[in-house]
């Protein structure tokens, strides 16, 4: 997880837009006024906290990645959106070389109330790569696109309608197992957070301050209460000495 400073933290001026765990760059606003010294100081303190947490999390993240995968790149890169006017956000993606990337905005780092919450967010995003969720969602999208495209074709639809059906199928397909993937990342993220010496239950309290997505059909995220239950159950297993390597998928 290369970063400048003690951990070689990389500050990148881009906006993270979650779209199937893909970061979408956005142009900066021209002639924006510079931040005040007070805001800059708070931002620097937030980054210092991130560096400290990342330093403890890195060995556990990469060890878990190597233990649970074969031939996958486990050399994580941590990036931070250093703009002060962007909302709290976190993401996981891979760069062109296949290197796993965990990204957070400064607003998110400032929003968390303690190191446990920040550690849990990082562990959750790291788990997405270990579980290969980006590739899984891409496969789900392809299956959905093929299914609806063929259905439209069988009904005699024209080329434009078939293409629209494929696009809709891809969107629906990418959402079918999205909530399952989030719960899986919560579970594995709990293990990583625990192994790094943080409290996942305190960390998962961050969920309770987020808008609850509810249990919507084809929603991208499960209800907050269900996510807390997964963390609680995983911690209970860890406390009973089940061992992280023996924990099953949710």
Automatic annotation (TrEMBL):
Task: Quote the record's cofactor note.
Answer: Binds 1 zinc ion per subunit.
Matching entries from CDD domains are given as: M48C_Oma1-like
UniProt keyword annotations, A-Z? Hydrolase, Metal-binding, Metalloprotease, Protease, Signal, Zinc
Q: Which residues form the Peptidase M48 domain?
A: 85-233
PROSITE patterns (UniProt xref):
PROKAR_LIPOPROTEIN
Q: Which domain of life is it from?
A: Bacteria
Query: So where does this one cross the membrane?
Result: none
What cofactor(s) does the depicted protein rely on? Zn(2+)
Q: Does the keyword Hydrolase apply?
A: yes
* InterPro entries assigned: Mito/Outer_Membr_Metalloprot, Peptidase_M48
Coiled coil spans: none
Of which family is this protein a member?
Belongs to the peptidase M48 family.
UniProt-recorded name of the protein: Peptidase M48
Which species expresses this protein natively?
Thioclava marina
């Amino acid at each position: 997880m290369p970063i400048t400073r003690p951990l070689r933290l990389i500050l990148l001026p881009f906006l993270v837009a979650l779209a199937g765990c893909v970061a979408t760059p956005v142009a900066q606003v021209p002639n924006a006024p510079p931040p005040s010294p007070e805001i800059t100081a708070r931002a620097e303190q937030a980054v210092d906290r991130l560096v400290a947490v990342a330093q403890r999390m890195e060995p556990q993240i990469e060890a878990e990645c190597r233990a649970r995968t074969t031939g996958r790149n486990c050399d994580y890169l941590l990036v931070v959106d250093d703009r002060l006017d962007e909302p709290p956000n976190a993401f996981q993606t891979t760069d062109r070389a296949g290197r796993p990337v965990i990204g957070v905005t400064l607003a998110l780092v400032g929003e968390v109330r303690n190191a446990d919450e920040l550690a849990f967010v990082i562990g959750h995003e790291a788990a997405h790569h270990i579980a290969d969720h980006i590739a899984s969602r891409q496969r789900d999208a392809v299956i959905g696109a093929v299914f609806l495209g063929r259905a439209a074709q069988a009904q005699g639809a024209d080329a434009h309608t078939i293409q629209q059906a494929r696009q809709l199928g891809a969107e629906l397909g990418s959402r079918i197992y999205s909530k399952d993937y989030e719960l899986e990342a919560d579970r594995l993220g709990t293990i990583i957070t625990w192994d790094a010496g943080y409290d996942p239950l305190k960390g998962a309290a961050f969920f309770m301050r987020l808008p609850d997505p509810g249990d919507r059909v084809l929603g991208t995220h499960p209800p907050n209460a269900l996510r807390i239950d997964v963390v609680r159950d995983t911690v209970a297993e860890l406390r009973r000495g089940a061992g992280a390597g023996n924990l099953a998928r949710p």
